[in-house]
Amino acid sequence: MLLKKLSLSALGLITLFGCTRNAISGRSQLMLTSESSLQTQALTEYKDFLSKNKVVTAAVDKKDYDVVQKVGKRIAAAITKYYAQKGLSNELSGYKWEFNLVQSKDVNAWCMPGGKVVVYTGLLPVAQNEAGLAIVMGHEIAHAVLHHGQERVSQQQAAAIGGNIVGSVLSKGSNKIASNVFNTVYAPTAQMGVILPNSRKQESEADHYGLIFAAMAGYNPQEAITFWQRMEKMGGADNTPTLLRSHPTNATRIADIKRLMPEAERYYKAR
Ligand SMILES: [Zn+2]
Predict the structure, then answer these.
(1) In a domain, 169, yes or no
(2) Kindly report the CA angle at 155 between 99 and 4, in degrees rounded to 5?
(3) N or C: which end of the chain has fewer CB within 10 A?
(4) Is residue 114 part of a domain?
(5) Ligand 1 mean position to 59 CA, how many Å?
(6) Structural domain tally of the chain?
(7) 115-129, pLDDT tens digit by residue?
(8) What is the pLDDT of residues 23-67, one digit of tens each?
(9) Which residues are catalytic?
(10) Does residue 100 lie in a domain region?
(11) Residue 89 structural domain
């Protein structure tokens, strides 16, 4: 009981002092781990993932390789411009963009903190075209630059601290917890088979800024509506794609994307 009381007060302190207002979204986020330490961890996981999977090179499939590079670079350039215009380039500190296509039937893509992006070949038929791919990559990259990974790792850390391991936190420090929760949040790379869905707030932010980034990169934001409709139809079966498990989609989400369309189209026309 004493331990539980201690845990709850520890959690209260964490919530009180661990929050930071996001420079782009303005939303208060729990940040117990630093972006730079997360980027370091992400780089290790990313290299490990690439070493264990079949990376599609230009020699293997020039057309698909080229499209992932082209879309990725255009979105990265749009994000760099967007943050520079707001005087927030320091938010992208440590970002060294890399884009990879990996051979896998899974419908999935992700971007790690620091700008390491992976697209699975299984996503390409669902994306259907360059603009469809830009919608997914814009969304995934938005999660990273909006520090959603940092926030999710922090939430898991808080949950761990609020649990029954206060003693171990005090004795061992939080680094051990940080590495364990990293693997929980980035389950697709850790292949733990557990996918923690993004929160609705994170999903709607990634939709919002992902649309803007794709539009600034020169892709029609309207593609987002048909893309997420296609994804929604793929749900429900046993083999629900990973992307759909981590990014739950329904009619409300698609209606929200339609509401975001006028703003995204302004960016599309102004480019
Ligand atoms: Zn998402």
Answers:
(1) no
(2) 155
(3) N
(4) yes
(5) 31
(6) 1
(7) 999 999 999 999 999
(8) 999 999 988 888 898 899 889 889 989 999 999 999 999 999 999
(9) 140
(10) yes
(11) 35-148+193-270
